[in-house]
Design a protein that fits this description.
The chain is α/β, with parallel strands linked by helices and 231 residues long. It has one domain. The chain has seven helices and 14 strands. It has a five-stranded mixed sheet with strand order 1-5-12-13-14, sandwiched between helices. Strands 4-10-6 form a three-stranded antiparallel sheet, with no helix packed on it. A two-stranded antiparallel ribbon has the order 2-11. α7 links the parallel β12 and β13. α3 packs across α6. The protein is elongated and about 60 Å long. 29% of the residues are buried.
Length: 231
């Protein structure tokens, strides 16, 4: 019997960095209020290398080569993807993904999120490598190959400590229960208007709200809105 891969220590929480602007504020608050994570296609993501792959020499010589590559390309395009991180304390991620510290970071209880999402939605821990993943001349389906390709990034992205939600199609991954959201974290540069709007929604949903504080090269969070105690 071959050896297997196991993950014995999954994170207790995952975090999703989101930019906040006048144009997308309503959309982002709607996602929190209605209980879903939007999963775009890989072509909509910021990394132009996303979805890149190589092919083995054996596959390139196979009669099915062109069909296989076409099927993998089609399968990649159908999938929906959402990126999460194990940390909410990454300065580069606040700068790149949260509108230069003007956005938010949403914390999720990982166990509760897994229980609430549909069975065909999967979480993968990203693999980081110096070279693009390779398609082999094997019996894997186009869907399996597409997921493998989209679970790998260049090693320079490793500091993001990314977990990726992959679903069968682009769109909303619904978790419904607000209990999946463990907290909302405000960037240090968020505007007073955006802060007030987010605080209002957090209060309505009884979600803890945290404000970023910066001390020289260190960031931390101070709770500004507590979740009410359950009776």
């Amino acid at each position: 019997m071959p050896a297997t891969i196991q993950t014995y220590a999954p994170p207790s929480r995952l975090f999703r960095y989101r930019p906040i602007t006048d144009l997308n504020l309503t959309r982002e608050l709607k996602a929190i209020s209605e209980g879903y994570v939007f999963c775009p296609s890989y072509k909509e993501m910021n990394d132009p290398m996303e979805g890149a792959h190589a092919e083995s020499a054996m596959l390139q010589k196979a009669k099915s080569y062109a069909v296989t590559v076409a099927q993998v390309t089609e399968a990649k395009g159908e999938l929906g993807i959402a990126s999460f991180s194990e940390s909410n304390l990454s300065e580069p991620m606040w700068a790149h993904y949260a509108n230069e510290f003007r956005g938010v970071c949403i914390g999720y209880n990982f166990k509760k999120l897994l229980n609430e999402l549909p069975n065909d939605d999967v979480f993968v821990r990203m693999s980081y490598n110096e070279k693009a993943p390779v398609l082999f001349n094997d019996q894997k389906s186009a869907g399996q190959r597409a997921r493998m390709v989209l679970s790998t990034k260049a090693v320079r992205w490793g500091a993001e400590r990314e977990w990726r939600l992959i679903r069968p199609r682009r769109g909303e991954a619904e978790y419904n229960s607000i209990n999946c959201v463990s907290g909302i974290y405000l960037g240090s540069r968020i505007s007073p208007e955006h802060r007030a709007a987010i605080k209002k929604v957090a209060h309505q949903l009884s979600v803890p709200l945290w404000a970023m504080e910066i001390d020289q090269y260190a960031i931390s969070f101070k709770r500004v809105l507590k979740a009410p105690k359950k009776s």
